[in-house]
Structures are given as structure tokens and as C-alpha cells.
Design brief:
This protein is mostly helical. The chain has helices at residues 24-40, 43-52, 57-82, 91-109. The chain has a domain at 24-109.
């Protein structure tokens, strides 16, 4: 049995009747998914995704977003490290990682989803 995608379901807005509202535990896990990705790359989003994928569509979508973004940042690091000019600008993906992860964690704290810009959607 597969869960419908949070993005495709009809519980995206809290003002609708019979609206799915995530619990405090789901909200906390979603915030941790984004925040821990800054320090531990794709490990926390992957662990949380595998743990909650059949239990919480809200946490699952946050974990997929965080995983995809952290993987995209990792690919950017590798490409920039290989290129000679890119080595000078390795700080840019790290700053983007911190800024976007903080924004996503704040949105998760508000019980909303936020899609990272410029992200490869490899885990769907």
C-alpha cells in the first residue's frame, strides 16, 4: 500500500475542513530532517525517510525534499571541486545549503512544506 504524495493530496492547506494536520512529533521530525542535513549531509533525511515512509506522508515529503537537496549540494561540491575555477567558489553551495535548510526547517516548524529551488528530484 503506497501513501499518496503530500504534494498531490488535498491536505496542503490548513483552512480546509477535514484537513490533515501533522502532529507535534511529525513537525519535530520534519524540522530535524532539514536542520541535521546541514551537518550530516544525506544521512538524517535518508534515515528519517526509511523510518517514517509508511507512517507519515508529511514527514516522508520533508525527508524526500531534504534528501534531494542535500544530494544536489553534494553533486555541486564534487563538480566544483573537480574544476579549477570551482575550487575558489566552494563556499557558495555551503552558504546555500545553510540558508535553504534554515528556511525549510522554519517552514516545517510552521507545518508547511517548502520545495528547495534548483534541486534534482531523484527520490520521488
Amino acid at each position: 500500500m503506497s501513501n499518496p504524495s503530500y504534494w498531490q493530496s488535498n491536505f496542503q492547506r490548513e483552512d480546509q475542513p477535514n484537513q490533515y494536520v501533522p502532529t507535534e512529533d511529525e513537525r519535530t521530525l520534519s524540522v530535524l530532517t532539514h536542520a541535521l542535513g546541514i551537518f550530516f549531509w544525506i544521512i538524517p533525511p535518508l534515515i528519517i525517510y526509511l523510518w517514517k515512509k509508511d507512517q507519515s506522508p508529511y514527514v516522508t515529503e520533508h525527508a524526500k525534499e531534504a534528501f534531494n537537496f542535500q544530494l544536489t549540494i553534494g553533486i555541486m561540491f564534487v563538480i566544483m571541486f573537480i574544476s579549477l575555477v570551482g575550487i575558489l567558489f566552494l563556499w557558495i553551495p555551503y552558504i546555500l545549503d545553510i540558508a535553504f535548510s534554515i528556511v525549510a526547517a522554519l517552514r516545517a516548524n510552521d507545518k508547511k512544506l517548502w520545495r528547495y529551488p534548483m534541486t534534482l528530484r531523484l527520490l520521488k
